[in-house]
Amino acid sequence: MPEIGADVDPAELLTVAREEARLGAREGGVPIGAALFGSAGELLGRGRNRRVQDGDPSLHAETAAFRAAGRRPHYRDTIMVTTLSPCWYCSGLVRQFGIPRVVIGEARTFTGGHDWLAEHGVRITVLDDPECAALMRAFVDRHPDLWHEDIGAGHS
Amino acid sequence: MPEIGADVDPAELLTVAREEARLGAREGGVPIGAALFGSAGELLGRGRNRRVQDGDPSLHAETAAFRAAGRRPHYRDTIMVTTLSPCWYCSGLVRQFGIPRVVIGEARTFTGGHDWLAEHGVRITVLDDPECAALMRAFVDRHPDLWHEDIGAGHS
């Protein structure tokens, strides 16, 4: 089997996830975006964190993109692109559904389970994108409470 | 801090998740149910796998119950109850959100990440409930394709 996404530019794929993160920021939400692509770079689903917008704690960016892609028999030929290193919840999604490749905007403001995924054979690309990091940094500075809530680390 | 759920009977909590699994079976869905409880056994949210019913691959039983519970600042005083050993996706949810205790109906028909959760300090109780296992066995026998799809192991 050829390498998944051999002919696609990870930075190009990230533009869709970053656009979702920007939309989330404008809405006052947690500015994390994601998109699921097929192996040739075709978009299957895109989404952003919806905790604030919908009051839904289950929709992280990756799970929102996964949901938007709808039912598929398997994910062995897909690429998950996310603006931020995936938390354990979203890393678990990637592992369970056998998504073979993950492109990450940045892992500076938060590091989730991407090393764990790499240990389990997932190909990881971290782009260290300045805009993705700037969006997160601005949000966490202004709304530390919301960010902590989003990763289950809130105060009582 | 007192032990989470010290005064609750795990088998009693399971009745709610099992009722969700039964409803799912009647709807033709993947018969897995879950419920999130507070430390004194108060119900916070309940749900069932909704792949078939809603065409939504992101709603496993545990994520549906988590969603139904709505936004909370943290989950350090909650108990996740599920009829089946949680897959990596749902195990990741438990770990990320710091849910300290998981009650599992059965782990015979499928074993997910509950040993991994135990290694990371989550208290795991497996009840080996015959009805939970019978619901799953009947479903997997009749719809192996749907079951494999639900765990990302479907055929092309």
TrEMBL record, chains A, B:
One of the record's GO molecular function terms: metal ion binding
Record's subunit section: Homodimer.
Domain CMP/dCMP-type deaminase: 8-124
Compartment(s) where it occurs, according to its Swiss-Prot or TrEMBL record: Cytoplasm
Organism encoding this protein: Amycolatopsis cihanbeyliensis
Entry annotated with the keyword Ribosomal protein: no
GO BP annotation list: nucleobase-containing small molecule metabolic process; pyrimidine-containing compound metabolic process
Cofactors required: Zn(2+)
Record keywords, A-Z: Cytoplasm, Hydrolase, Metal-binding, Zinc
Biological or metabolic pathway of the protein: Pyrimidine metabolism
Alphabetized PANTHER family for the sequence: CYTOSINE DEAMINASE, CYTOSINE DEAMINASE FAMILY MEMBER
Domain of life, source organism: Bacteria
InterPro entries the record matches: CMP_dCMP_dom, Cytidine_deaminase-like
Designated name of the protein: Cytosine deaminase
Lineage, broadest ranks: Bacteria, Bacillati, Actinomycetota, Actinomycetes, Pseudonocardiales
GO cellular component, one term: cytoplasm
